[in-house]
Fold this sequence. Notes:
Chain A is 38% helix and 17% strand. Chain A is of the alpha+beta class. Chain A folds into four domains: 6-110, Sulfite Reductase Hemoprotein, domain 2 (Alpha-Beta Complex); 142-296, Sulfite Reductase Hemoprotein, domain 1 (2-Layer Sandwich), CATH 3.30.413; 310-402, Sulfite Reductase Hemoprotein, domain 2; 426-556, 2-Layer Sandwich (Sulfite Reductase Hemoprotein, domain 1). In chain A, the strands form four sheets. In chain A, strands 16, 17, 18, 19, 20 and 21 form a six-stranded mixed sheet that branches. In chain A, strands 1-2-5-4-13 form a five-stranded antiparallel sheet. A five-stranded antiparallel sheet of chain A has the order 3-14-15-12-11. Chain B is an alpha+beta fold. Among the domains of chain B are: 34-67, no CATH class; 69-107, no CATH class. Chain B has a five-stranded antiparallel sheet with strand order 3-2-1-4-5, covered by helices on one side.
Amino acid sequence: MYRYDEFDHAFVKERVAQFRDQTNRRVAGELTEDEFRPLRLMNGLYLQLHAYMLRIAVPYGTLSSKQMRQLAMIGDKWDRSYGHFTTRQNLQFNWPKLEDTPDILQALADVEMHAIQTSGNCIRNVTADHWAGVAADELEDPRPWAELLRQWSSLHPEFCFLPRKFKIAVTAAAADRAAVAFHDIGLKIIKNDKGEVGFQVLVGGGMGRTPMIAKVCREWLPKGELLGYIEAVMRVYNLYGRRDNKYKARIKILLHEEGDETFRKMVDEEYQKIKAAGGSVSHLVPEAEIARIETYFAPPKYDLLPDTDPQLAQHLKANAKMARWYEVNCATHKQQGYSIVNISLKPEGGIPGDATSEQMRAVADIADTFSLSEIRVSHAQNLVLPYVRKQDVVAVYHALEKAGLASANLGLVTDIIACPGLDYCALATARSIPIAQEISKRFEAPARQQEIGDLAIKISGCINACGHHHAGNIGILGLDKQGKEFYQITLGGSADETASIGQIVGPGFSAEEVPAAIEKIVDTYIGLRNKGETFLGTYRRLGPAPFKEAVYAQAAE
Amino acid sequence: MAEKRPLRQVLTANLLKDGLVVFMTDGAAWSPWIEDAAIVTGKDSALELEGKGNIAAKANVVVGPYLIDVLDVNGRPRATLIREHIRTLGPTVRTDLGKQAERAAGGSGQGGAFI
């Protein structure tokens, strides 16, 4: 894992001291709320429905057990003993007091964490494939580049006041688990025709009220040119992105309005200027610097193990529940004899993404014993133990079961992404979590989930789409209709390497009607699917008509 | 035709120091309970209440005061919008948290903590 250097320590420490002073001045009345709001937002502190909310950055979703334990401690000491893992691989606390926040930020700084740039019109937390470094289908670990981008974008003087927020994601795997096509900039580490490794640069993806799939801005970029080229993209956006209308201020709108070709030319021209400027500031990433960062992400010293573990096989044969969990939640590791263990934070009928302080400590303990003290947060609001030996899988399962963290539903119908919605969020127009809970309860039978197979349901409580509903195979968007919550259902969205935006199936539903409508959609899929065909495959083959017919026939009954 | 009822409003805000939801009382104090809120029915009295809220905001007691519409339900005010109703209770998915939990623990509307 990356460890802070003296520069990192210094700037985080300075920021804590600044925020302590700013908070004191606010409480003393020396700063008005209008003056203070941008300062607290720059430190991740929002004012939500019931209280303040602090959003803490988890860079590219990688956490140490020590950091996880500190989060648990913060939850116990200053919050309500739980946290909410988000679709940006971050963690949110829902009840911190303003006066306690500087102490919380200090506690975060003590374990090399912060909440800087988790809000505001700046480059937000850089996300990555949550299986980075261990995925069997990966070209290389993308995290050194994510870390480079984190360092480059943190307090970058030119990009602190962009027209709107800006999100970057990185992956190096064939299967896109980082939803790169839905980012302002999505980076795919790929090989070109000559076999050289570099970046495919996607620009202009996003969700919100105008969902768009990112366009390829550069087919292949040499790795060393990453920052220079990204800087050119950012400069074009910073200069030409709209600031007169926040709903048209994201880079996706600029790209759309200019057209792909013109936008690419604008970036290329800017990039040529950067290259030509030369001088002391090269457009190339210093090789020594990336080499330095890469050392922090070097693969661990793996034990040389056989690919199969006879004892594990025996246990799985004897325990059907564990066998199901292993099949659903554990993924192929790049290292023989190891497993990637995914921890679902979606217990049947539970709140997606929530973990108690006790559970956080349990995960930290398990990571210490069985996963080289490392944990990942996924954008699907789950956790990952990246380095589990197959011979330890049984012990890990029992430890997770004891902590209430052994739900066997990764990627299934109950593994629902949901934003906090109107239960917490000041921007929300409807509740998301209760909808997720009702759907989860309706489909909780393991056999039913297994029968359905892979299915991504994603729920947002407003048009801002923090719950990624546009990218849900089944998306649900909560809105307000004359003071009542109602829900639009979209079908056919996908966040993977075949990214697509879901299409509205028809008129909306009341909260009570949603679970039955979802069940009808699922039943229609099961009735029409070909052998081995996923929900998305069936939808793409047949289109919306049969689903629409089924859902509204039911509504008319 | 149903009789048109006068618009009833209360003033709400969040406390600066902890962000918790409060309502302005008849005595221009702040209570965590909507039952303690001063209820106004006319434009002038609403403006007057809002003015008192703005003074409290300038005095750095609360943040963002605003009027909300309420209904009379069994003699008690109830926010008409679901958003505001949730603010008077706490998260509907965590009834062990927020005002609903405090109420269950005995911190009832009348006589709650005043600021």
